[in-house]
Specification:
Blueprint (H helix, E strand, L loop, with lengths): L12 E3 L6 E3 L12 E3 L4 E4 L13 E3 L4 E4 L13 E3 L4 E4 L13 E3 L4 E5 L12 E3 L4 E3 L4 H9 L4 E4 L16 E2 L15 E10 L9 E7 L4 E6 L12 E10 L4 E10 L11 E7 L2 E7 L11 E11 L6 E3 L5 E3 L2 E3 L4 H13 L1 H5 L4 H12 L12 H20 L16 E3 L5 E5 L6 E3 L12 E3 L4 E4 L13 E3 L4 E5 L12 E3 L4 E4 L13 E3 L4 E4 L13 E3 L4 E5 L12 E3 L4 E4 L19 E3 L4 E2 L15 E3 L21 E3 L6 E3 L12 E3 L4 E3 L10 E4 L18 E3 L5 E3 L14
Parallel strand pairs: 1-3, 2-4, 3-5, 4-6, 5-7, 6-8, 7-9, 8-10, 9-11, 10-12, 11-13, 13-14, 27-29, 28-30, 29-31, 30-32, 31-33, 32-34, 33-35, 34-36, 35-37, 36-38, 37-39, 38-40, 39-41, 40-42, 41-43, 43-44, 44-46, 45-47, 46-48, 48-49
Antiparallel strand pairs: 15-18, 15-20, 16-17, 16-19, 19-22, 20-21, 22-23, 24-25, 26-27, 49-50
Helix pairs in contact: 2-4, 2-5, 4-5
């Protein structure tokens, strides 16, 4: 989006959803005071929501969902007093829900789901007397839904309120009036190819908020009567308008061996309806093939002033074609036996098919088959499933199964099969027996990472470094939104780093060193705002480093050395004021050292930066004077570049410096006497330059190398009594035999 949008001064309707736009939202957009509709959903926009959104007092619809927006919800949004619909869902927003949203008293639709919002739901939202839909799920909210909100929603005939109120929710919130509670297994915003069967319900909507549409509700349940997905007005149709028709798909990755019941109902309360008989309400698809279309005429009978009508479609596993078919719910051959629906074995099998697929679970040669059959027939921990089983039980089954996959796929030995996985070596659980840490570093693991690991939604630490793992990083690992530390260094993994890794919003450590990863660093990584440690050294990565790296303001260590990066290293990296180590040597960076050229360019510098390692690149500028701002430096290595100019006197202010390497550049003139202030220097390497004069300005470092030997291309030989090694212009070096604290004669070769 260009800032030139400011020229569209009379713009009222701006709709560019479902494109591939990236970059930030220009502040100029929110200066267009005639705007009534803004639709920017389903793009790749990042950055924060500009605070001047509050300029748009007449704005009715604002849709920013499904982007990469971060930061907090600006309080100024509360000045958009005419807003009817506000959708900020599926972004990376953090902080609290601004109380100013309570000023939007005309709101009918508010979606804040799938973000990282924290704190309590403010009671002032009870002021939203017209609100009909409120989505808060998949955040980190706590406390209770305010009574005023509950009272409001309980009065409405048709409404929808959702939050993380399931018993196994990642962060608990109490809600006695929610239509739907989300938890470990209620998130359908998943990454990766569906391993089993994709069920899609396409709602053929017209007219967005037409009253007649409010009467239709549908739901899909499995054989255990677990509600899987549901819909109607409030699950879709946000961008439909009175003059437009639109289809809204709702997709679920589920078991291809299970049985399902689809129910659609119509409740007429305010008189007869006026849909035509052939109007298609919705269609049901299985793996892209339509299996059922429900039309209005399917609801037969006379319609009185108040009536209720329902249509039920049952479908399930067919032994004939191995897929889901209307009117079928056949037995499945499991571990050598035919197993009917409703049995313990069938219920467990159906649960496992969701995450591994039918093909893998019926092939006797696969790890999936062996793990499933062991759990069904041999495991001393007997899982039972019925209509009263909880989602947590389903999660614990998946966890047990995934731990068994670890054994089979990684050739684990010495683990106690009939013990709970929380008792296994390298597996750590919380008080609820949920696995939160896997630490199998240096255990000789072999094999490939597998997508089922992405189902461990509570996992916080995954350490698999120093093994013999190979293959690509499965995109399904991006579903580990609670993962804080991921160690995969010193393995044989390859391929591109998946873009989806930027969805692992809790990551503080990403360690991928010493593998064979290739390609660019995906831009999505720069949205991991919690990241503190990023190590990708010794790979085959290339391309340029985006200025968006400045988004990683919490970085403490960044190591991208020994790769093939090119271009200018953006100075934005210095926005990470907590940075302690910046290691970027052995690449092909050009241009300037990544320091601001003017002292006032940034208000703060990484004062704790102790290691700045930029050697073996192609930097061709002078050393910036602003280097004096890095007062915590202990190691400064700029060797083997093409740096020009002089050694700046400002280096003398880095009083903690212990190692200084400026060798093999094109530096000229004398060594500044200010370096005598660096009393902690123990290693100094200045050879391979064109320095002249007297180099005896140091306090006798343990290693001190300069060009104090003949022949010397610079004319007059550099004098250095304190040097331990002298080099010449032929890059020949030898010990300085005259090194002492007494008189010194220049060493000749």
């Amino acid at each position: 989006l260009s800032s030139r949008i400011r020229n569209l001064r009379r713009l009222e309707d701006f709709r560019v959803s479902d494109n591939l736009m990236n970059g930030t939202i220009p502040v100029e957009l929110f200066n267009l005071r005639f705007l009534r509709h803004i639709y920017l959903s389903k793009n790749r926009l990042d950055g924060t929501i500009p605070a001047n959104v509050g300029n748009l007092g007449d704005l009715l619809y604002l849709y920013l969902q499904n982007n990469l927006l971060n930061g907090t919800i600006p309080a100024e949004i509360g000045r958009c007093s005419s807003l009817v619909e506000l959708d900020l869902g599926d972004n990376e927003l953090e902080g609290i829900i601004s109380v100013e949203i309570g000023n939007l008293t005309d709101l009918v639709y508010l979606d804040l789901s799938y973000n990282s919002l924290t704190g309590r739901v403010p009671g002032i939202l009870g002021n939203l007397t017209y609100i009909e839909l409120l989505r808060l799920e998949m955040n980190q909210l706590s406390g209770s839904i305010p009574n005023t909100l509950c009272e409001h929603f309980q009065k409405l005939e048709r409404s929808y309120l959702s939050s993380d109120c399931a018993g196994d929710a990642l962060s608990g919130i109490s809600c006695s009036c929610c239509n739907e509670c989300f938890g470990l297994s209620k998130s359908n915003n998943r990454h990766g190819v569906c391993p089993s069967t994709e069920i899609k319900v396409v709602t053929h909507q017209i007219g967005g908020y037409y009253d007649p549409w409010k009467r239709f509700q549908w739901s899909l349940s499995d054989g255990l009567n677990y509600p899987l997905i549901e819909g109607g007005l409030f699950h879709a149709g946000q961008e439909c308008f009175e003059s437009d028709g639109c289809d809204i798909p709702t997709t679920l990755c589920s078991s291809s061996s299970a049985c399902y019941a689809f129910q659609i109902s119509q409740h007429i309360k305010y008189g007869s309806d006026y849909y035509i008989d052939d109007f298609e309400l919705l269609s049901i698809y299985v793996d892209g093939i339509e299996i059922k279309t429900i039309k209005y005429r399917d609801f037969s009978g006379a319609f009185s002033a108040t009536s209720y009508h329902q249509e039920v479609v049952e479908f399930g596993y067919s032994s004939t074609n191995g897929g889901l078919t209307i009117g079928h719910c056949d037995s499945v051959r499991i571990c050598g036996s035919e197993v009917p629906t409703g049995s313990r074995e069938r219920n467990i099998f159906d649960q496992l098919v969701k995450i591994s697929g039918t093909e893998n679970l019926i092939d006797r040669q696969t790890a999936e088959y062996k793990a499933a059959c062991w759990i069904i027939h041999e495991d001393e921990i007997q899982f039972e499933f019925s209509e009263t089983s909880s989602e947590k039980q389903s999660y614990l089954l998946h966890q047990r199964y995934i731990m068994e996959l670890l054994r089979f796929k990684f050739n684990l030995t010495g683990h106690m099969r009939n013990k709970h996985e929380c008792e296994w070596y390298g597996i750590y659980c919380d008080e609820d027996e949920i696995v939160v840490r896997i630490d199998l570093a240096g255990e000789g693991l072999s094999g490939e990472l597998f997508g089922e690991l992405g189902e461990l939604n509570y996992l916080k630490i995954l350490n698999l470094e120093k093994n013999r793992l190979r293959g690509k990083i499965p995109v399904e690992l991006a579903n580990l939104r609670s993962l804080e530390e991921f160690y995969l260094g010193d393995n044989d993994c390859n391929g591109a780093i998946p873009t989806e890794i930027g969805e692992m919003i809790s990551l503080t450590v990403l360690d991928l060193y010493s593998n064979s990863f290739s390609g660019d660093i995906p831009l999505s990584i720069y949205n991991l705002s919690a990241l503190k440690h990023l190590n990708m050294t010794k790979n085959f990565l290339g391309g340029t480093i985006s200025p968006r790296i400045g988004n990683l303001v919490k970085l403490e260590k960044l190591d991208l050395s020994l790769n093939f990066f090119v271009g200018v290293m953006p100075t934005d990296i210095m926005k990470a004021t907590y940075l302690r180590e910046l290691v970027m040597n052995s690449n092909e960076f050009t241009g300037s050292i990544p320091l601001p050229s003017a002292p006032t360019q940034y208000s703060a510098y990484p004062e704790q930066l102790s290691r700045l390692i930029l050697g073996d690149n192609k930097f061709d500028s002078s050393i910036p004077k602003t280097i004096e701002k890095l007062e915590g430096l202990r190691e400064l290595m700029l060797d083997n570049n093409m740096l020009t100019g002089i050694i700046p006197t400002e280096l003398g202010k880095l009083k903690k410096l212990e190692l200084l390497s400026l060798s093999y550049n094109e530096l000229k003139d004398t060594i500044p006497s200010e370096l005598s202030n660096l009393t902690k220097l123990s290693k100094v390497f200045l050879h391979g330059n064109q320095l002249v004069g007297n180099a005896d300005v140091m306090h006798f470092p343990q290693e001190y190398i300069t060009d104090c030997g003949y022949p010397f291309a610079g004319g007059e030989l550099l004098v250095c009594e304190e040097c331990t090694i002298c080099c010449n212009s032929l890059e020949e070096c030898q010990m300085n035999e005259n090194y002492s604290i007494c008189n010194f004669s220049p060493q000749k070769f």
